[in-house]
Amino acid sequence: MTETTGLYGTPPASLAEPAADAIQFSPLIPGSDKLDDRPEASLAAMTILAPPGTVERRYVVALALRAVSSGGTLTVLAPRDRGGSRLKKELEAFGCGVGETARHHHRICTCERPEAPQGLAEAIAEGEPQRVAALGLWSQPGIFSWDRLDPGSALLLDHLGPLAGRGADFGCGIGVLARAALTSSKVEAMMLADVDRRAVEAARSNIDDARVSFHWADLRHPVAGLSGLDFVLMNPPFHDAGAEDRSLGQTMIRRAADALRKGGTLWLVANRHLPYEAELRTRFRSIRSVAETSGFKVYEATL
Fold first, then answer.
1. CA dihedral 86, 91, 92, 95 (to 10 degrees)
2. How many helices (H) and strands (E) does the chain have?
3. What is the DSSP pairing of strand 106-112 with strand 68-79?
4. pLDDT at residue 217 is higher than 90
């Protein structure tokens, strides 16, 4: 029997102790392996910090049950108010006999992989990449705003100025903003980057353009060789592991400033309550408030 174990996400060390050499499968950690491609019954055990969304969570658990050998151990945990309270029932629906504990506002469920789990194919099919009719684009449950155009991006699209030269979309999602930018024949090249592998793969499916390069990257860290850009588009995230983290957008603003040439432009949309103005004033020569609604604001910042 294989001794290889898997890990999905970064569960608190006080709640779960995966093996030090466990293979990471989270699509939100660049460089991780892809659980979708893992051969059946090729893992001895797996630990999962479960996603909050029901469809995404059942998809991940179903993939894990497929990948773990019969009799192998599956440990699944989540905050009680972010899916944890439903874990036991969901695992039982797959045919698992589940032991459950509660610690530090988390539910922790442990079970052995049954000989013949139930409903795996259905859960996998529901959570797979799919073409969303309302968008006419490929997406997947778990990606930010996966099945609709989020209002922040819609506001930015309504007010986006003319673009030309070399640019980037930081936190590209499934490629909505980039598709709009690429309608300009004056755009010479675009780099699309996102921390979510699934989003990058969806963007690849949605954009067939020789001017584009795709990068699975955490933009909290510097991007080597990215400089001299004419424009950057950004609808930055402000949650990390479910908790609000305003530093994400602030860091991405700094990355944009580092990547732009003098005179280059950042187009930013954000929730109104987020304090990005000070960071923009520190890094950019001029800032223009382009639009503001009850929930969002758009800025054009020139380096």
1. 160
2. 8, 17
3. antiparallel
4. yes
